[in-house]
Specification:
Blueprint (H helix, E strand, L loop, with lengths): L6 H20 L7 H5 L4 H13 L4 H10 L1 H11 L6 H27 L6 H27 L1 H25 L7 H31 L4 H32 L6 H8 L6 H19 L3 E6 L11 E7 L2 E9 L8 H70 L3 H24 L9 H10 L7 E4 L9 H22 L3 E8 L3 E8 L10 H12 L3 E6 L5 E8 L3
Helix pairs in contact: 1-3, 1-4, 1-5, 3-4, 3-8, 4-6, 5-6, 6-7, 7-8, 9-10, 11-12, 12-13, 13-14, 14-16, 15-16, 16-17
């Protein structure tokens, strides 16, 4: 492998040396000749050529720059060959003056022809900056030639060529170019700061002169500096506001993260709402019109100019972030960086939502399996234990009619109580009264089954709301459990049942006036609490000494 200096770079260095030779010779004079001063700007293209050719040996622009670097040597040679009786430096200066702006125009034309200008956004911006820089250079050289004389024109040309070479190298090597109006905003802020400072300084100086204040120039200069320092923060704030409105703040703050996660529960619809919040935050941070998120491997169906970003956690593809850019060619580089910085956080959000949805499916499957198991238990109780209790009760009643006895009477009553308890247990396991979907009628029948057996049941109006079947079953079982507990344990005189629904939620309260006291949840309450959590709800048990007990169930109407 060749580790030496590339040949094109060596050629660029030789071209630079050749172009700088006339100026180096002029340094030997007591005063640098104007002809030598004209040539001091062109070696800048040789240095630029070395930089470009070191990056890419076949760069057309680099070779063109190397050619431009030798122009001083060519001009010097031509002037010396055709100088006649003129001194050498005078002939060189005269040729530079005759070439004038035309030589600079030709050099810029060569640069424009060799630059890779495509039809994309960055190339158009490069072209705009090239044209603007070229126009500024030509304007400055033309003005100096007309108004300043040869030496001023030589100085302006030299400085302008160094600036042009630096600008072109920057345009070629930079990856990102801001929209042209942003530097104009920067220039406007700087110009406004200087103008306001100068205006304030002039007014203070004029007032100090009229008032006879000593050294008014110092007062004016100090006032100008103070005014500029005070105005500059306001200008920078306006600039930040302009950029924030275009690109967004560029990051998510702690307050933004808090807002994303606010009011989120374990329900699946809340988890999906997190996607919308996260997308809105990305849109706000990056300044895009619209941002969306989808979970899963499938790509969203969006228009062709939208941009898609894959979301991954480890090696798993968890979703896609899609956005509509303001520009048809895609996001600005600054916006793209902001979005990519947020992708890990958004990927974790998508993964969390995916897990929440999967957990919801698991809960639904578990609920179905439990319903199946309850149906099996129902069959065993209804077809096995139920007939046995009926048969035993009939035999005891028959024997009691033949031979009345206190023991048989007590046994008959116990069997009747067992059959009643069995009916309530079966009804709680699988309330077939809900098969027609009429929750109000089912609760009325349930309340009526307790008539004459214990507390007075006060059933409030049940709203005619469409509840999911599993939610209606949970409501029915809560009321059955509350009534049974009031009958068995609370020694209550009255039980109130209230069912309230909204478009999204259902709330059930079963309140008795019994003894209250600490309650240790048994099998029934524990099962109800698990059922409520599976459906995205909560079960609360409130009880105190002598103030009764309240069971409260809150859950979504459509889990």
């Amino acid at each position: 492998m060749n580790s030496g200096v590339p040949g094109p770079v060596v050629g660029a260095a030789l071209a630079t040396a050749a172009g700088a030779a006339p100026a180096l010779v002029g340094l030997g004079e007591s005063t640098l000749p104007t002809g030598a001063l004209y040539g001091l700007g062109w070696p800048a293209f040789g240095l630029a050529a070395a930089l470009l050719l070191d990056r890419h040996a076949r760069s057309r622009l680099g070779r063109a720059f190397a050619g431009l670097a030798v122009i001083p040597a060519v001009v010097t040679a031509i002037a010396l060959l055709f100088r006649g009786d003129q001194p050498g430096w005078a002939a060189i200066e005269q040729l530079w003056e005759r070439a004038g702006v035309a030589l600079v125009v030709a050099a810029l034309a060569v640069v424009a022809a060799t630059m890779d200008i495509a039809a994309d956004r960055m190339s158009r911006r490069r072209l705009v900056w090239l044209v603007a820089g070229s126009a500024a250079l030509l304007g400055a050289v033309s003005t100096a030639s007309v108004a300043g004389g040869p030496r001023v024109a030589a100085v302006v040309t030299t400085l302008g060529l160094w600036g042009a070479a630096a600008l072109i190298v920057r345009l070629v090597t930079i990856r990102e170019l801001r929209p042209v109006d942003e530097p104009l905003v920067d220039a406007a802020v700087a110009a406004a700061t200087l103008l306001i400072g100068a205006g304030v300084g002039t007014l203070v100086r004029t007032g100090a002169e009229h008032a006879g204040v000593p050294r008014p120039d110092v007062s004016g200069a100090f006032s100008a500096v103070v005014a500029a320092v005070l105005v500059l923060p306001a200008g920078l704030w306006l600039r930040r506001q302009f950029l924030t409105r275009r690109y967004g703040p560029g990051a998510l703050s702690a307050a933004d993260v808090t807002e994303i996660t606010a009011e989120l529960h374990t329900r699946t619809d809340d988890a999906r709402a997190l996607l919308g919040k996260a997308a809105a935050m990305v849109a706000a941070a990056s300044g895009h019109r619209e941002v969306g998120l989808v979970v899963g491997p499938d790509l969203p169906d969006v228009p062709g100019h939208w941009v898609l970003y894959p979301l991954a956690v480890g090696a798993d593809r968890v979703g896609t972030l899609y956005l509509e850019p303001r520009h048809p060619e895609g996001p600005e580089p600054r916006q793209d960086r902001v979005v990519r910085q947020l992708l890990p956080t958004v990927s974790l959000v998508a993964k969390a939502v995916d897990l929440a949805v999967e957990a919801d499916h698991v809960r639904r499957d578990l609920a179905r399996e439990r319903d199946t198991e309850r149906a099996r238990i129902l069959g065993d109780l209804h077809d096995g234990l139920g007939p046995m209790l009926v048969g035993m009760s009939m035999r005891v009643r028959a024997e009691l009619r033949r031979r009345p006895a206190p023991v048989l009477e007590a046994l008959a009553n116990d069997l009747a109580g067992c059959r009643s308890d069995l009916r309530r247990i079966v009804s709680g396991l699988t309330p077939s009264v809900l098969d027609d979907g009429d929750l109000a009628a089912a609760l009325e029948r349930l309340a009526g089954s307790f008539t004459g057996q214990g507390p007075k049941v006060k059933l409030g109006a049940v709203p005619d709301a469409h509840l999911a079947p599993e939610v209606a079953v949970a409501v029915y079982r809560l009321v059955a459990e509350g009534l049974t507990n009031a009958l068995r344990h609370a020694r209550a005189g009255q039980v109130a049942v209230e069912v309230r629904t909204t478009s999204d939620t259902v709330q059930v309260d079963v309140t008795d006036d019994g003894v209250g006291g600490p309650i240790v949840p048994g099998v029934g309450l524990s099962s109800l609490r698990r059922r409520a959590e599976e459906l995205g709800g909560t079960l609360q048990v409130d009880a105190g000494a002598g103030r009764g007990t309240r069971l409260r169930l809150e859950m979504p109407a459509a889990p």
